[in-house]
Amino acid sequence: MPTTATSIRDEIRRANDLFEASFERGDAAGIAGLYTSTGVLLPTGMDTIEGAGGIQTFWQSAMAMGIKQVKLRTRDIEELDDTAIELGTYTLFAAGGQQVDQGKYLVVWKEEAGQWKLHQDIWNSSVPAPAQ
């Protein structure tokens, strides 16, 4: 039975809710588990990060740098069979709810073993670089 657009949106929202909750708990392994087995991160200013171990290490490092909370807001989802493309915005917070970054992201989602998972994840800040 094919997944409907509404249920794909619901699954992506559920996964994003789990991402946010896992981040607040400091559970980088839980976040890594939301990615496909061949998941890829494409962070600004860094090389590509591949696989569960690299993804877990990346998010653990972000937490160690003082990021305590992330909020994700979906703007649009385009559905393509067993793939979906999500366009959204993010906000990062430090301790005490202090906003430290905001920006936009694009995630390619894949259905893997009956679950929608992040497959390719790219984002960049909307905060201007400091003047030189």
What keywords describe this structure?
single chain; 132 residues; alpha+beta; six-stranded mixed beta sheet; 30% helix; 44% strand; DUF4440 domain-containing protein; NTF2-like_dom_sf
Number of E-state strands: 6
Main sheet properties: 6 strands, mixed
Alpha-carbon distance between the termini?
Answer: 56 Å
Strand order of the largest sheet: 2-1-6-5-4-3
Uncertain runs? none
Order of helices and strands: HHEEHEEEE
Radius of gyration: 15 Å
Mean pLDDT: 94
Can you tell me about this structure?
There is one protein chain. Strand 1 and strand 2 form a beta hairpin. The chain has 132 residues and is of the alpha+beta class. The mean pLDDT is 94. The chain contains 3 helices and 6 strands; from the N terminus they run H-H-E-E-H-E-E-E-E. Strands 2-1-6-5-4-3 form a 6-stranded mixed beta sheet, with helices on one face. The longest helix has 21 residues, at 5-25. InterPro entries: DUF4440, NTF2-like_dom_sf. It holds the Pfam family DUF4440.
